[in-house]
């Protein structure tokens, strides 16, 4: 598997786009953050590194990172699209509290096996998937 930098450069080259210094910085900042970040949050991190990079550049670059397979967009039901790094990350699903918006990353082999059986039943080849379960966390249920 190639590095995310190489993967992004290959994507840009294939699509006849420039590999600018600003895009490189956004990629490095994105790769250096853990968790799920909105474009606004990512912009805050990027602007600390290089204040000349505009929010629009961050938005466009994160879209390119998503299109290239490095980032994955997630909607946790609060109207904000967030992104997380897919490179060298184990697949996981999410549990999201609809009250406090806490997010729990989960891996459950039985669910993965069931999804494979379901795809096989319909002779369907799955490339990737995401599952987000919405509910109320234990802390919020106590309140």
Q: What are the low-pLDDT stretches, counting only 5+ consecutive residues below 50?
A: none
Number of helices: 6
Percent strand equals 15-25%
**End-to-end separation:** 46 Å
H/E topology pattern: HHEHHEEEEHEH
Give your account of this protein's structure.
Zn(2+) binds at residues 97, 100, 137, 140. The protein has six helices and six strands. The chain is of the alpha+beta class and 143 residues long. It has two domains: 4-85, Arc Repressor Mutant, subunit A (Orthogonal Bundle); 93-142, Dna Ligase, domain 1 (2-Layer Sandwich), CATH 3.30.1490.190. Strand 2 (71-75) and strand 3 (81-85) form a beta hairpin.
Outline:
The chain has 143 residues and is α+β, with helices and mostly antiparallel strands. It is built from 6 helices and 6 strands; from the N terminus they run H-H-E-H-H-E-E-E-E-H-E-H. Helix content is 45%, strand content 17%.
Index terms:
143 residues; alpha+beta; Arc Repressor Mutant, subunit A; Dna Ligase, domain 1; 2 domains; three-stranded antiparallel sheet; three-stranded mixed sheet; 6 strands; flat
């Amino acid at each position: 598997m190639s590095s995310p930098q190489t993967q992004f450069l290959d994507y840009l080259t294939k699509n006849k786009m420039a590999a600018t210094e600003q895009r490189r910085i956004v990629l490095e900042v994105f790769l250096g953050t853990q968790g799920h970040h909105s474009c606004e949050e990512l912009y805050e991190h990027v602007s600390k590194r290089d204040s000349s990079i505009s929010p629009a550049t961050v938005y466009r670059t994160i879209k390119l990172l998503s299109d290239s397979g490095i980032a994955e967009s997630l909607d946790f039901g609060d109207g904000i699209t967030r992104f997380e790094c897919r490179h060298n990350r184990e697949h996981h699903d999410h549990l999201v509290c609809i009250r406090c918006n806490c997010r729990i990353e989960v891996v459950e082999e039985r669910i993965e096996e069931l999804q494979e059986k379901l795809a096989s039943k319909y002779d369907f080849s799955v490339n990737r998937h995401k599952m987000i379960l919405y509910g109320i966390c234990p802390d919020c249920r106590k309140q």
